[in-house]
What we know:
This protein is of the alpha/beta class.
Amino acid sequence: MSSSSNNNINSNPSSQQLQYIDAGANLLDSMYQGTYHSKPRHEPDLDIVLRRAYEKGVHKVISLAGTIKESEELAELIHGLDSEMEGEKGVRVFGTVGVHPTRCAEVFAEKDDSSSNEEEGDDESTTATSWIPKTEQQQKEIIQQLIHLAAQGKESGNIVAIGECGLDYARLQFCPKEIQHLGLRAQLEVACETKLPLYLHNRESGDDLYQILLEYKDKLSDGGEHIRGIVHSFDESIEIANQFLSLGLYIGINGCSLKTADNLQVVKQLPLDRLILETDCPWCDIRPTHAGAGYIRTAFPTKKEKQYNRELGKEFCVKNRSEPCHIAQVAEVVAGIKGVDVQEVVKVCCQNVHDLFGNLEKKR
């Protein structure tokens, strides 16, 4: 994200001619309520963020949930946005129901108070939490709760996928592998029951995630050849990508997929008709030091969060806080890597979103 204030926020008129879909955002994040690392910096500005997105050509956004509570809150947020937009033009927001792998211990397990890795003389900061899986009956109840939330949302057209679920071996301090596997398998059952596509998280866990999905392939594909889903924020090797592609999955690309020269080489080799563009906002902005930054043509002037307010929000983004409007930059980098027109990238990737998630239309 550029910090230059010399570029007007509408400095790229051609972006007005494109219609984007941000297929992965985190609109529940506290940054859009003005809070950064638990510190309040400015008033909530999600309405300004979504207005700017629409002005820059973003017509649809899929926002992600990370716990059952967040799934409920996201459904409420979407309902509220729809009510406010009744008869008005603006971004249409859709959502997911699911539990992020790093949050699985909160949902599928309980702390083991009888066991502690704390040695005598250690302080609390060095104590590792031990977790016990909830009972089989409790697991069934959680699955039914997720199915109920997903089915309700599917009926309204607001919920379009199960997730963000998957595996994350880079942050095992939040949830051990065995509990992540338990949570993933539970959510695969939810996907089988609801017939909704998967919104998958993968961090340093590609081989294990592939093997578990392979186990469920027949159930998830309903006897067909392909699993409906996306592996989002992809940043692993082309070999891992090809494993997921062999299952019929799409690959989600955002700023975290475009940081290094190796990342760019992977994206260059991926077929465009299997890519989906996302921002993962407010995270995964494309910074000047990233390998893909040289391909960016659309600049957004920014202010630091301490300086930012709602009035400034009419012209400025917050520095290092990504927004749905930054999907334009993701498209430009992908186009630059592949040597094709950005219009072609946007057109194909939007079609990919519709092929996976459906028409993304609200139901009365």
